[in-house]
Specification:
alpha+beta; five-stranded mixed sheet; 5 helices
Length: about 170
């Protein structure tokens, strides 16, 4: 059977994982990070205690090693399992590649520790600022044709003889 398989699939099966779903998920993730993402030095490994196949990966030739864990969406994942993986793999940062049955995948990076949520006032200010930016962008989009027509009527820009008051009054019309 292995003579018709991709060599990497054969090697993944030989790592020791007895779950065909985990093995095939790992293979598809391996192909994605090698062929689609084009990451460097992708090395597959198996941790028997966790029963997890994982990859040590460099995003670029000279970047540091990162750990990618292929995870079928069919299986659940709890915080305790993630913490155990971080301890046993001796890495506080793991990138999970959640692979669904329809072959779509989601990359999700988990880092040890919790971050404090923003204070209600700070999040309110951030939201107000985002709303102001959206309003300004829509105003600019709405006035772009008017500004374009106005710019065409001003004539050559290298002439400095035009008085600024004319320019200011024409902008106020908008």
């Amino acid at each position: 059977m292995y003579d018709i398989c991709h060599p990497s699939y054969y090697h993944l099966c030989k790592l020791g994982c007895n779950d065909p779903i985990k093995t095939s998920t790992a293979f598809y993730v391996y192909i994605e990070i090698c062929e689609v993402k084009r990451y460097w030095d992708v090395d597959y490994k198996y941790n028997e205690e966790l029963d997890v196949i994982y990859f040590e990966v460099k995003k670029k030739e000279n970047s540091r090693l990162e750990i990618y864990v292929p995870w079928p969406t069919k299986y659940s994942l709890c915080l305790d399992k993630i913490e155990k993986m971080q301890q046993l793999l001796q890495n506080k940062r793991l990138t999970f590649v959640f692979k669904s049955e329809d072959s779509s995948s989601v990359f999700y990076t988990v880092t040890a520790g919790l971050s404090k949520p923003a204070a209600p006032e700070a999040s309110k200010q951030r939201k107000e600022k985002a709303e102001k930016i959206l309003n300004l962008e829509s105003e600019i989009r709405r006035n772009t044709p008017n500004l374009y027509e106005l710019a065409k009527t001003l004539g050559p820009t290298h002439e400095t003889s035009q008085e600024p008051s004319n320019l200011d009054s024409s902008l106020e019309i908008l």
